Amino acid sequence: MMHAYLLLDSHQIEGLHAQLYALAPTATPHSLYLMTQYAAMAAFGPVVVGVERDSQLANTFYANWQEKAGIWLESDAAEADLIAHLRSLIHVQLDGDVSAFFRFYDPVITRLWLHDLPVVERDRLMGPVRVIRLPEADGNTLLISQQNPDQPTARYAPTPWLRLSAHTLEHLGQAQRSQFLQHLVDHVQRYFPQCLHDLHPRQQQAWALACQASAARQGYSAEDEVMLWASLFATYGQDFPQGEGQEIYRTLLAERGVTPRQRLDRVLDELTLRAIPREPAQ
């Protein structure tokens, strides 16, 4: 019998375990980093959880997570075998016998990695996974289906069994970065169109790169964080937060005892307060 699962990115979904408990209290999430040498990072790694079609969890995935924070997959194998195979893919071996994390659960990476592979190779890599469903830009669903289901289940080992050339990994990363920059450009065109007015596409990409670099200097690199940072960059430009009159922002960004996301939220609150017209003094 075919069962559906979500493979979700804890780093992209704030409070993932709490959300899963609220959306599907009887479901059992499985962290792929547990029982590996990366167990200490389990709170930021990928999580597998069973999902019922048309459930509250499924609807939340479609509405909020499927674009960047995980993939929908289906399998008729035993759950333990599915989890074992997915766990074996969390890292890869590169040229020179260097190991690296592999974010195969990012829908952009999944598409680039599997979609155009020869059938025999793709089937072997999918193991007990029979179907992967990915969103298309036009609202349709791309199905990556296994043609030959009798494939062995791989097992995690400290030395990765999967090898990728550095060129392949760079290709995957570059494509992901390019898509992210286009998402940022689209976001800015929608909410801050004056920033990109009269700029040709290459200049728009340069603006987005500068915005991303500005966020990274303050420790913000996740896509949702950079999207939020864009409002600050659009308002104050490349000098932010070092410009004149921006002392309060520098103070908030340097605040101790709070998380980076809390600092960013407080900076955005300050931006909102400054945008509210004030009543003239009587």
From TrEMBL:
DUF4123 domain mapped to chain residues: 5-120
Any matching Pfam family: DUF4123
InterPro entries according to UniProt: DUF4123 (IPR025391)
Protein name, UniProt field: DUF4123 domain-containing protein
